[in-house]
Amino acid sequence: FNGLYRVNKSNKFNVPFGRYKSPNICDEEALYAASEALQKANIVCGDYLSVLKEYARHNRNNPTPAEELLWNYLSSDGLGVTFKRQHIIGDCIADFVCLPNSLIIELDGGYHQLPQQQRNDAARTEWLEEKGFTVIRFSNEDVLKNIEHVLEIIKEKLNPETKNYIFIDEI
Asked: Which residues have CB under 8 Å from 86's CB, separation 6+?
């Protein structure tokens, strides 16, 4: 789990520097401190799952603009499948997941460019793939500026067998 929060004695979390600030003003030292606090959360709190549930609920209620835009397309079953958002899988929270297709969609903000976060993301993706999931990642910027292309990639991952076919109505 690679979220950014601190846990206090009552199993509540606090976002240390604001999840939605511009990546240009992200304090790298605060990021590492938040990650360290999270890793120790299950020792400090004793109830890691309740912390994950609270964090997932917080993220569902406070989406980034990119998450909100993509969810508008995914939640309407416009792609023919059902997605869940901020869904707990093991000790990870997937931004979006289609459980029947084992597809996870992750949206990455600016802090995902930091070296430590890239290592965390790679380890998390590897673990999820070992569990049978396909993980695709998009930057927030990709979603906000080119949602049609993002949706095409998602459709290809949902229906890989149709990728190389030409449909009669396309001719």
From this structure: 56, 57, 59, 60, 93, 94, 95
Q: Which helix (H) or strand (E) holds 86?
A: strand 84-89
The model's pTM: 0.67
Rounded Cα gap, residues 10 and 133, in angstroms: 33
Q: How far is CA 92 from CA 16, 39, 52, 127, 161, in A?
A: 19, 12, 8, 10, 29
In the chain, the amino acid numbered 68 is: E
Q: What's the distance, Cα to Cα, between the start and end of the chain in Å?
A: 46
pLDDT by position in tens, the chain (length 171): 344 333 443 444 443 333 433 333 344 455 455 555 555 544 444 477 888 899 899 999 999 999 999 999 999 877 889 999 999 998 889 999 999 999 999 998 866 567 777 888 889 999 999 999 999 999 999 999 999 999 999 999 998 664 444 444 444
- Positive or negative, the CA dihedral 86, 133, 114, 7 is positive
